[in-house]
Amino acid sequence: MSSPAKAATPSFDVDLLRAQFPALSQEVRGKQLIYLDSAATALKPQCVIDAVAQVYERDCGNIHRAVHLPSQRATQSFEATRESVRSFLNAEHEKEIIFTSGTTASINMLAQCYGRGLKAGDKILVTGLEHHSNIVPWQLLCEQVGTELVVAQLDEDGDVPLDRIEALLKAGGVKVVAFAYISNALGTVLPAKKICAMAREYGAISMIDGAQAVPHLDIDVRDLGCDFYAFSGHKLYAPTGTGVLYGRFELLNSLPPYQGGGDMIRNVSFEKTTYAELPNRLEAGTPNIAGVIGLGAALSFLNSIDRAAARAHEEEVFRYADKALREIPGLRRIGTAKHSIGALSFVMDNAHPHDIGTIVDMEGVALRTGHHCAQPVMKAFSVPATARASLGIYTNFADIDALIASVRVVQEMFS
Fold first, then answer.
1. What string of pLDDT tens digits covers the 415 residues of the chain?
2. Where are the beta strands (DSSP E) in 265-415?
């Protein structure tokens, strides 16, 4: 299968964009790196690396605490990122943006803060697609207060039919609907707007695990109608250790503090402590200042390109990869939902996924192998693990050609 001579999106120059990612210029195993693990963590453009370096070189002061100039500059840049995130999500208020260390921290915060108001017998609804970070925090809550976790299971394509979600809502008692917008293991895209509307109809709040969606889709939390939305910066070309919990103001403002410490208080005495307003109340302690400023740089980077053209390019590369993989004898795609993007999981006859990953690494191709922190998904397909190629904004057709060539090496070795 020959790759297209060029993308059908002339306003998006993928080669020019790739030049901004220094990691792509390296060799591994004596070969040019082919990076197909963006669902695990995306590579960082030079502007993000520079922004982080500048914090430590020039603006290394703690935020919200000092009057000296480095602190003022760091505070200004940190809070400018909050406005950038608000705009990126089309949230109504900056106070609806809470910085965390990632999606996992955001979901844990919500489970522990909102969960304090739930009681024994209340239900939390998740889907069979979830990453462990949208399962385990709710299970911990169930153990603490006696709530029940209910699951809308997958179909044979790796999708979650809406009628399965509605049946659980109709059964009553569901107070929280928490679901992944896009599956990290399969790339399945769920109809988030419809699920949020369904949750609202049955009196439940909705929480979207949007970690995999932010790199690939336009996110408008007001249009989606979600109550909460969580994502990680490192999936979005920003530093690791950064994340966001968005919440509708009236709900977010009702949450008690998640942690106690500096910067989340109004007044402290040994007799009583009063708490700051949002967002400070939910951001105790010194945050990842440089990382959040790097997140702001990543959003500026994304705003500098034609996102619609970039998405069209990604979709074309995804379709090309899907078709090419399916043409390899003895290879089976895992997760074939009609609406998918970003990640392509597969298994091969006679070759364990870890063997696949090891062999393609020798060809310079970086894949993820394993259960992808989604063991229930693996169980649904009766496989212990898969190999997963995941795409980023910088992925081109040549990357896919290299992937296919490396997989054919595996095929030859295990035939």
1. 556 654 445 578 999 999 999 999 999 999 999 999 999 999 999 999 999 999 999 999 999 988 999 999 999 999 999 999 999 999 999 999 999 999 999 999 999 999 989 999 999 999 999 999 999 999 999 999 999 999 999 999 999 999 999 999 999 999 999 999 999 999 999 999 999 999 999 999 999 999 999 999 999 999 999 999 999 999 999 999 999 999 999 999 999 999 999 999 999 999 999 999 999 999 999 999 999 999 999 999 999 999 999 999 999 999 999 999 999 999 999 999 999 999 999 999 999 999 999 999 999 999 999 999 999 999 999 999 999 999 999 999 999 999 999 999 999 999 7
2. 265-268, 273-275, 331-334, 343-348, 365-366, 368-370, 386-390
Domains defined for the chain, CATH in brackets: 14-32+306-414 (3.90.1150.10), 50-303 (3.40.640.10)
In this structure, is the dihedral angle defined by the CA atoms of residues 324, 322, 35 and 54, taken in order, positive or negative?
A: positive
Which candidate, 164, 168, 109, 161, places its Cα nearest to that of 133?
109
Strands (E), 89-212: 97-100, 123-127, 148-152, 174-180, 205-209
Residues identified as active-site: 373
Task: Please tell me the distance from the alpha carbon of residue 99 to that of residue 229, in angstroms, as a whole number.
Answer: 12
